Amino acid sequence: MIQSSNLRANLDRFLATMEASAQIGIGRENGLRRLALSEADRDMRDLFVKWCRESGLKVSVDGIGNIFGRREGREDLPPILIGSHLDTQENGGRFDGIVGVLAGLEVLRRLNDLNITTRRPIEVVDWTNEEGARFSPPMVASGCFVGDHDLDWALNIKDDDGVSIGEALDSIGYRGAIPVGKREVDGYFELHIEQGDELDRNNREVGVVTHGYKSHGVLVEYRGETAHTGPWPMERRRNALVAGARLLTAVDDIGWEYASTSGKATAARLIASPNKPGILSDWAEAVCDVRHNDPDVADQMRVKMMNAINDAAGRTGCAARVLNTWSWGGDIFDQQMVKTVREAVGNLGYNSWDLPSQAGHDAYFLARHFPTAMIFTPCKDGITHNNNELATAAMMEPGLNVLLHAVLARADRP
Amino acid sequence: MIQSSNLRANLDRFLATMEASAQIGIGRENGLRRLALSEADRDMRDLFVKWCRESGLKVSVDGIGNIFGRREGREDLPPILIGSHLDTQENGGRFDGIVGVLAGLEVLRRLNDLNITTRRPIEVVDWTNEEGARFSPPMVASGCFVGDHDLDWALNIKDDDGVSIGEALDSIGYRGAIPVGKREVDGYFELHIEQGDELDRNNREVGVVTHGYKSHGVLVEYRGETAHTGPWPMERRRNALVAGARLLTAVDDIGWEYASTSGKATAARLIASPNKPGILSDWAEAVCDVRHNDPDVADQMRVKMMNAINDAAGRTGCAARVLNTWSWGGDIFDQQMVKTVREAVGNLGYNSWDLPSQAGHDAYFLARHFPTAMIFTPCKDGITHNNNELATAAMMEPGLNVLLHAVLARADRP
Can you tell me the distance from the alpha carbon of A131 to that of A88, in angstroms, rounded to the nearest whole number? Predict the structure, then answer.
């Protein structure tokens, strides 16, 4: 095994794949709008598959469209997975998710260059619909892979036009033949842009992700009654849109209450029907979440959010129903894997920073079942989910090399 | 001229037209969903035109789809108009608007039965898109008729699918040849269900509408910035959806503040983009309004609503822009016309009630330019903009006869 501190990824080759990706699903200036299972996503998948095959990887696609590019090892052991996602938000950047998949590809290409055969197989993975921008919830396909989500349930999730994940997979030709999950994974690495500004602000080259912000999310439905916006007395109104607006306002207030300790609360989505001038809405659906670095505080925020759901119903005479809840983060990463990352940083002599992930990632689902670690690259000013998202080559290079070293160490360990 | 207190409309014939209308554009149980310029609206218009022609009326359609069925008078004087609308809300009833148009038709048919030729011509009118359920704002076509709205502006108003009023008129064949408005009207009568419960609760057979609740509405746009829902600090968030939610909450609070004096405030509509889990929205648009019987109090409520617009922007770091405002109501009706209605009630011996209109009506636009009055029929429990809206035959008959008598008196006056 060759694993000197001189070993480096081919940055130019990696950047060329990033640049090619930035041409597929162009959104606002310098940004991408490559929604999951759209035609743009299909074009990106096709290119990724082509790259994998050209690199001698064995490509397989599972029943929810996750793409695996496998490089065999010396022994028939469970593989190391390196992954992230190629889909983006409605107003997404060129880096969020994409860096992790294409860095995984570069790691395998570099091993090819050097004729290194690792002890264990290694696979690069593109997880379907990480963003949740088209199909909610996010990270749905990694959730299926580890068995936390029911596959049929996931395939039936519909976008705002009523198209299901299953139909969308069929229409772009990515409903694959292999089973979803149901196999062992030796370890999972995910390289990602930080999506915060700690590394950039503190001039650190790479982030060792120690844990995840604890996060609690909820999808709530309110039911009221239609009536005229004019004569109908306030006392008799059951306007579901107002119930949703009151919840979102209360959740935002919770965020401000905890802002001094870097807590966050998000009112992310509100839809209503009929949602028209002249008539009160009898249906609304809201998505919101709370997050905090301290799991106990996150739990307190959750209690306030759940109370706010009922308060909003009570204030408006509507009926509230919680349709879905989710919780992420905490001490989810494998300490041996984190140590492997930290050792790679040390070997390479980078200036690093331990930090939590504040965003959700596919790694959160993997971490529930398999040893998992994440590596962060800095991103300019922490801007993300925005076309101004930026990770320069200099920002990405250390993380890419740390990934290479950590994967190699994990794959070859006795 | 025959105008004894024995003169009555043909209730059965009127009810037969109501029943036929209730079969076109069926929505929820017992309700209608007959959106303006939809295929259902076209079918209803076709039937109305057929009825008009069978009744010997001269039918014309203007450039924004308003339909006029004219019965000539003895002299070439400006006509009396009787009108309302045949479109409904998303979850509309069978009576709101429809009663007024079909009552107008019945009035003309009854004059035919009795071979009465009035001094002035009389026209029954169906105004396009009164509800504003598909194209906002409401009452747009009567606003064009009186010249308060620019026709080109109105023809370019788009529904949520991007279809303009002009395109919708063409697609159902109701962009008529005659000019919009630009002619004299002797007087305008509109019969409508009350859309409140005063008549029903007080066991009154018919309402004499004295004035309109003063109402102020606003269409507001907020602009913020997309960012990740997770790591982005509260202090840097500019979530346009939260700005909209805070406005709607504040407007609802204003309604409650004035509820004891029957004031109302409505948060009617909120749309945002991207409006997805995982990303902060950088755009939102909200529609809200305030109403009060006392115009001065309504003006106070308006000041609070306008302040709330800016407060919501300030709290969220978003930019607010008021895209449209409107004001209705007050002492808009012609006292001579109202007296004519009251005299008709007296001749017929009905048990009536003076009351304001709390909802907006096409009559509000007509009243700005021509002598106008409204007549209310009771409706069960005040329920409207809801499939449970109900006006029984017994509830509609008095108003129908009052309309007949009032129109005849106006049309034949010296």
Answer: 6
Cβ partners under 8 Å of residue B184, min gap 6: B78, B370
Partner residues linked to A216 by β-bridges: A290, A327
Contact A279 B268 (CB under 8 A): yes
**Helix A39-54 vs helix A98-113: crossing angle, to nearest 10:** 10
B269 has a chain A CB within 8 A of its CB: yes
Among B129, B66, B83, B28, smallest CA distance to A278 is for: B129
Q: Do A227 and B89 touch (CB under 8 A)?
A: no
The chain A residue lying nearest B215, using CA atoms, is A230
Token digits of residue B310: 């800016």
Helix (H, G, I), strand (E, B) or coil at B97: coil
Residue type, B190: E
The answer to whether A343 faces chain B, any CB pair under 8 Å, is: no
Inform me whether the C-beta atom of residue A359 falls under 8 Å from chain B C-beta atoms. yes
* Nearest by CB: B276 against A90, A233, A248: A90
B215–A contact, CB cutoff 8 A = yes
> Which residue in A217, A234, A278 is closest to B89 by CB distance?
A278
Among A133, A238, A201, smallest CA distance to A355 is for: A201
Contact assignment for B277 to A382 by CB distance below 8 Å: no
- In tens, the pLDDT along A243-261 reads 999 999 999 999 999 999 9
Token pair for A13 = 């080759």
* Residues contacting residue A307 through CB under 8 Å, at least 6 positions apart: none
CB B270 within 8 A of CB A275: yes
Whether chain B has a CB inside 8 Å of the CB on A246: the answer is yes
Q: What ipTM does this complex have?
A: 0.91
- The radius of gyration of chain B's CA atoms, rounded to the nearest angstrom, is 22
Q: Which of A230, A264, A268 sits opposite B234 (nearest CB)?
A: A264
Q: In a 3-state reduction of DSSP, which class is residue A99?
A: helix
Give the nearest partner residue to B245 out of A267, A278, A279, using CB atoms.
A267
Burial B133-162 (b: 16+ CB within 10 A, else e): bbbbbbbbbbbbbbeebebeebbebebeee
Query: Where does residue A206 rank: exposed (0-12), middle (13-18), buried (19+ CB within 10 A)?
Result: buried
Interface residue B359 vs chain A (CB under 8 A): yes
Judge residue B233's burial from the number of C-beta atoms within 10 Å of its C-beta, 0-12 exposed, 13-18 middle, 19 or more buried: middle
CA dihedral B116, B120, B126, B130 (to 10 degrees): -130
Condensed to tens digits (0 to 9), the pLDDT of residues B168-189 reads 999 999 999 999 999 999 999 9
Rounded Cα gap, residues B197 and B235, in angstroms = 47
Strands B67-71 and B58-61, by their bridges, are: antiparallel
* Cα nearest neighbour of A246 on chain B: B249
Q: Residue A250 and residue A187: Cα distance in Å, rounded?
A: 40
Cβ atoms B204, B94 nearer than 8 A = no
Subunit contact A280:B268, Cβ cutoff 8 A: yes
User: What are the φ and ψ backbone dihedral angles of B173, each rounded to 5 degrees?
Assistant: 75, 30
Which A positions 147-206 lie with beta carbon below 8 A of chain B? 194-196
Q: Give chain A's domains with CATH numbers.
A: 11-195+359-412 (3.40.630.10), 214-328 (3.30.70.360)
The model's pTM: 0.91
CA separation, residue B270 to residues A272, B61, B221, B243, B314 (Å): 8, 34, 10, 10, 18
pLDDT at A397 over 60: yes
The partner residue sitting opposite A235, judged by closest CB among B137, B259, B275, is: B259
Look at B382 and A231 and tell me if their CB atoms are within 8 Å. Answer: yes
Q: pLDDT (tens digit, 9 = 90+) per residue, B6-55?
A: 899 999 999 999 999 999 999 999 999 999 999 999 999 999 999 999 99
Radius of gyration in angstroms for the set of CA atoms belonging to chain A, rounded to a whole number: 22
User: Do the chains contact at A194 and B231, CB–CB below 8 Å?
Assistant: yes
